[in-house]
Structures are given as structure tokens and as C-alpha cells.
Design brief:
By secondary structure, the protein is of the alpha/beta class. The chain is built from 16 helices and 12 strands. It is found in: Mitochondrion; Peroxisome.
Length: 415
């Protein structure tokens, strides 16, 4: 991993959303140099599903060697941002680095994204980034370090990144557009850059989106913290860049990326918005052994089982443990060669599967081509890749949808 150099000693970082995840990892990395960290986040009391508060994060930062100032901040609230910045300046004498890390996400299509969620994503991601930057800039201009870092993706206008979650993409790209504009506006005064992971990062939010087992396909937040540290220690003329964590760290001489993996050697899930299309990403994952089925390569026998045969195997794989651990009812609306409606009940009694609609309302409705359905259950098409590429449409509980992948992995050998 990237070693600390002490260059951030005495610097003050204002980090939004720093009570957990990537924001906290960046804070802890800077704290090892003896930096001051303003934890600007909402979580003052423990959340039932998400670990950490601004106060527990503050304790960890101080234990790591830094000074912490926990501030209750909703980044959509101008008064709260302004008050937190004033407290930081009073406590530490100024602000040297702003990290716009706070973000809201909903991977839903246009009709299924309530305006309340649209407003949340726009307010936290785009407006919150703009607001925090606006309030911090007068102090950043006085700093010798002067960096703004937005955790946002490269601007990629391939429609595939918009069609399945338009509102989220717009909100994240708003953060990236702040980089584009402010880097030019404050050229020579403040370095403004974006940082984005090449692969999925294991955080509490990822657990909620991906369900059990998703962590094996992720890297730890440490890779983002190291990449951020590298950016902060660069001069002000390093600005206007859309940095990918792995690419930057390789330039820094880091060769062993397994050091950042949750499960070293396990295939990793590519992150959204990168240059490659989802189909290309899926192909790349296959080539690198994303599943046991893919490892067979060209010698693998062609799967000819129709949907009905697939469901026979699915039904045979259902057991009490699967029902107890999943607690969800799935409905599959298939089109193409084998058009029809099928169900998988992993909630009621001993469970069940078959043709037709489930006896109770489905928690998740999945729509896709029947051929792709068979590929998905035989391991030839990863569910996440199917969703990202638009081959799979999902309505309902996303975390339950992704839980299904665990069952699919157990059935690969049988299919």
C-alpha cells in the first residue's frame, strides 16, 4: 500500500460523509500524518443498519494520530455547511483540503424513482458538492495546499450509463461537472480533481445494495484513501483530472493490487461509468474467471436446457436454509423463444418454483429474454452485468434481487 510521507501534517481536511466508508478511510489516512479532520456528516446517533457515527469516527481519527472535529452536517443545508466551516477555521486556522464524499444513490429507472429520491440525489450529490465547495473556496485560496476532491466518475456520455438509473447518473455527473468548471475557474489557485474506483468498494452501502457475499467481489476503501492521499500531496497544477484509483497507484509504483482486495484472487466487480461498456466489462470478467463456468472457456459444452429444465434444477436446489436466509418471492417475466411468467418462492413454507404467478405478491419482478435467463442461472451471465447492460430489468427490492446470486452460484454445477 502507499506509505505515508508526513506531508499532510498540520493540514486541515473538511470531509463530507466521513463517518464511515471511503470518507472515513481518507480521514484515517490523513490522520496518520497528523492532519486535522473535520467530519461533516449527518450520523450523530447510531444507525440501525449502518455502522459508525461522527463521534466514533472522531475517536478513530485521534487514535490514528490526527485531530478531529465532528460536525453534524446535512450537505443540503447551507447554514449547517457554513457553521461547520466556521468552526473548522476557528479550531484549526483554515481549510486546506475539501473532500466531497457525501452521496445518495438509487439505482432505479425513471418511472420507479420517486421525486423525493430524485431531490435527495440532486441535493446531496450535485448541490451539496457545489455548496461545500462554494463555502470552502475563500479559505482554500489562502492555503498552500488547496485541493478539492470530488468522489465522482469520469464524464462518459454513453447512453448505457443513463438508461437504467437516469436520475442517479445525472446527480453523480453533476459532481464531475463541478470539477470540470471549478478546475478551470481556479486554475493556479486551487487543484480540483475527481476520484473514482476501478472496481466496487466494500462499504456498508455496498452491503445494502449487493447483499451477502458481495464483499468478495470488492476492494477495501483503503485503495481510495491511498489514491486520495497521492492527489493531496501533488502540486496545485495537478488539476482538472478524472482519476481512477488503480491507475494512479500503479503510477505511484504500487504493483500488488491484491493488498486492497477483500478476498485476494477473487474476481472483482467493475464499477459504473468507466470507459468500457457493460458488455465489454462482462466479457473481461469472463476472461479473468468471473465464475467457474467461465473458466472452462471455449471447451465448455453449449447449454441447451430450456427454461423449464432450468426451473426443475432450481426447484431441486430449494431447501429450508435457502428459504430462511432469503425471505423473498421472485417473479420472472420472460420474452423471446420461451415467453412466459415463472416464479421462485423463497419465503413461504418450504419454498417452491414453477410456471405461472406466485400465490403471494412478488417482492421482486425480473424481466429478461428467456435465453439470457438460462445463461444467468448457468453462470454464463452475471446478474449484475445483466442489469448494468439493460438485459435484466428489476422492479422491487434490489437487495433481495442481488441475494438471488448466491443461490445461482450453488446451482451452476448442476446446470
Amino acid at each position: 500500500m502507499l506509505p505515508n510521507t508526513g506531508k499532510l501534517a498540520g493540514c486541515t481536511l473538511f470531509i463530507t460523509g466521513a463517518s464511515r466508508g471511503i470518507g472515513k478511510a481518507i480521514a484515517l489516512k490523513a490522520a496518520k500524518d497528523g492532519a486535522n479532520v473535520v467530519i461533516a456528516a449527518k450520523t450523530a446517533e447510531a444507525h440501525p443498519k449502518l455502522p459508525g457515527t461522527i463521534y466514533t469516527a472522531a475517536s478513530e481519527i485521534e487514535a490514528a494520530g490526527g485531530k478531529a472535529l465532528p460536525c453534524i452536517v446535512d450537505v443540503r443545508d447551507e447554514n449547517q455547511i457554513t457553521e461547520a466551516v466556521e468552526k473548522a477555521v476557528n479550531a484549526f486556522g483554515g481549510i486546506d483540503i475539501l473532500v466531497n464524499n457525501a452521496s445518495a444513490i438509487s439505482l432505479t429507472n425513471t418511472l420507479e424513482t420517486p421525486m423525493k429520491k430524485v431531490d435527495l440525489m440532486m441535493g446531496v450529490n450535485t448541490r451539496g458538492t457545489y455548496l461545500a465547495s462554494k463555502v470552502c473556496i475563500p479559505y482554500l485560496k489562502k492555503s498552500k495546499v488547496a485541493h478539492i476532491l470530488n468522489l465522482s466518475p469520469p464524464l462518459n456520455l454513453n447512453p448505457v450509463w443513463f438508461k437504467n438509473h437516469c436520475a442517479y447518473t445525472i446527480a453523480k455527473y453533476g459532481m464531475s461537472m463541478c470539477v470540470l468548471g471549478m478546475a478551470e475557474e481556479y486554475k493556479g489557485e486551487i487543484a480540483v480533481n475527481a476520484l473514482w474506483p476501478k472496481t466496487a468498494i466494500h462499504t456498508a452501502a455496498m452491503d445494502m445494495l449487493g447483499g451477502n457475499g458481495i464483499e468478495k467481489q470488492c476492494r477495501t476503501p483503503d485503495i481510495m484513501a491511498d489514491a486520495a492521499y497521492s492527489i493531496f500531496t501533488k502540486p496545485k497544477n495537478f488539476s482538472g483530472n478524472f482519476v481512477i484509483d488503480e491507475e494512479l497507484l500503479r503510477q505511484e509504483g504500487i504493483k500488488d493490487m491484491d493488498a486492497y482486495a477483500v478476498s485476494p484472487g477473487h474476481p472483482l466487480l467493475p464499477d459504473f461509468f468507466l470507459d468500457e461498456s457493460p458488455d465489454a466489462l462482462a466479457s473481461a470478467m469472463e476472461e479473468h474467471g468471473a465464475t467457474a463456468a467461465f473458466k472452462v472457456g471455449k471447451a465448455q459444452a453449449k447449454i441447451t436446457s430450456p427454461v423449464g429444465e432450468t426451473f426443475k434444477v432450481i426447484e431441486g436446489s430449494i431447501n429450508e436454509e435457502a428459504v430462511k436466509s432469503t425471505q423473498g418471492i421472485y417473479q420472472f417475466v420472460l420474452f423471446g423463444a420461451e415467453e412466459g411468467t415463472w416464479y421462485l418462492d423463497l419465503k413461504s413454507g418450504c419454498g417452491g418454483a414453477g410456471k405461472g404467478e406466485p400465490s403471494d405478491k412478488a417482492d421482486v419482478v425480473m424481466s429478461m429474454d428467456s435465453g439470457d435467463f438460462v445463461k444467468m442461472f448457468t453462470g454464463k451471465l452475471k446478474p449484475t452485468m445483466a442489469f448494468m447492460s439493460g438485459k435484466l430489468k428489476i422492479k422491487g427490492d434490489m437487495s433481495l434481487a442481488l441475494k438471488l446470486e448466491k443461490l445461482m452460484n450453488r446451482m451452476n454445477a448442476k446446470l
